[in-house]
Design a protein that fits this description.
Helices cover 28% and strands 22% of the residues. A seven-stranded antiparallel β-sheet has the order 14-11-13-12-16-17-15. A hairpin with a 4-residue loop joins strand 4 and strand 5. 48% of the residues are buried. The C terminus is likely disordered. InterPro entries: BBE, FAD-bd_PCMH, FAD-bd_PCMH-like_sf, FAD-bd_PCMH_sub1, FAD-bd_PCMH_sub2, Oxid_FAD_bind_N. Keywords: FAD, Flavoprotein, Glycoprotein, Signal. Belongs to the oxygen-dependent FAD-linked oxidoreductase family.
Length: 489
Amino acid sequence: MHTHNGRFSYSEAPKPLAIVTALNESHVQATILCAKKNGIQIRIRSGGHDSEGLSYISDVPFVILDMFPLNSIDVDIENESAWVQAGATIGQVYYQIAKKSNVHAFPAGVCPTLGAGGHISGGGYGNLMRKYGISVDNVIDAKIVDVNGNILDRKSMGDDLFWAIRGGGGASFGVILSWKIKLVSVTPKVTVFKVKKTLEEGAIDLVYKWQLVATKLPEDIFLRVVHEVVNVTQKGNTKKTVQVTFIALFLGKTETLLPLVNKQFPELGLKQSDCNEIPWVNSTLYWYNAPIGTPIEALLDVPKEPLSSSFKTMSDYVKKPIPKDAIKSILDLLNQYDGHLKMEWNPYGGKMYEISSSETPFPHRAGNLFLIEYLTNWGEVGVEAKNHYLNISRSFFEFMTPFVSKTPREAFLNYRDIGVGGNTPSNVTSIDIAKSYGTKYFNRNFERLVLVKSKVDHENFFRYEQKTSSYRHNGHAWEKAHKGDEGVK
């Protein structure tokens, strides 16, 4: 239960000494104090979507602190806000907002079973980002249990810690109990569409043009591109090819959307028949590939058993358009993987270019054209199958090197990837080890995160196999030495 990656559900996977199911806030406090007293590490799980399993497995003695029973959601439409406990899923958040209003929403992810605790603390990326930014840009308060068992809110935790947990990974600094989120405005009906094109139907030209226009479209439009291998049948013959899906959310009606898209991206050939006007809450299901008309109660569904399929995620940021010939090479290579690997390209522009890269720990703002998520899936079990598909993931990632960000090659914390660097969970003292991958997630914000960590958890109780601030140092000496560095406050 609450393990969404079969890669970590095998019988030999490391087991916790205990699983503590937190029914109230005092259970969280007691777990921290007890584990600290006995020298036991804790792993904090809300939705169980950690793509590297770091929230529920470890190679050292540990206990799991399950947050999913703490899932209350208190929506205040009058003040356009809501308190959301860490164990609530994003789907539950969407559902409860919709029960109170059809013109309010919250910017967060596509998968409704994501846990609010981890999803938001890692940044929270979704299709409202060009209009309103990401989840952490819309957090106005929080409650956290610190290393000493104290429950802190925004005022009592102070500006530095409140800054750090909004995108720096809350589990590095304590246990998130709840978030106070700011609701945003949406139209009573939004427009969604999916336009699918294969390589044979000119997908390469369309993908190239998408790079040039997606960030320049009005901020009410979010137009994602999904690349995947499919089987197509022509004249009785079936063959593999790459299909590119352009999937969009528009805050408005079809009659307004069509001229906007057809003016700047006429090659897409968008037609009225491609479009559907539905309430925003229904669009969250559409983006999760549910059929039009699916009851919104589906947002409340949580898998009762661990998923049998396994997956690996990786990420990249692209700052310059990828040439057409390179796109062809990329898609030709993708076509060799029998549908086990796909890419999602997520456009920037709009609000994402207006927010400073140091406003929160999430640094990936102006200068980026789009974010790539690589997702490798497989159903086979066993070490041999796992290694085979992980090698596929790594080789494709290496192939993409010339086309993505450099020095550092940036990565998104929510798409956790141990491949960008890692450390053992015990007594890591070298700043260089953590900096080698911390800068990929946080760029210059890494340094400020380290300083916050040294102040709020100087004995490094909250740690795991990949943590950007998982070491001790003399905070005062470091601060003095880096006093002039940008990003240190």
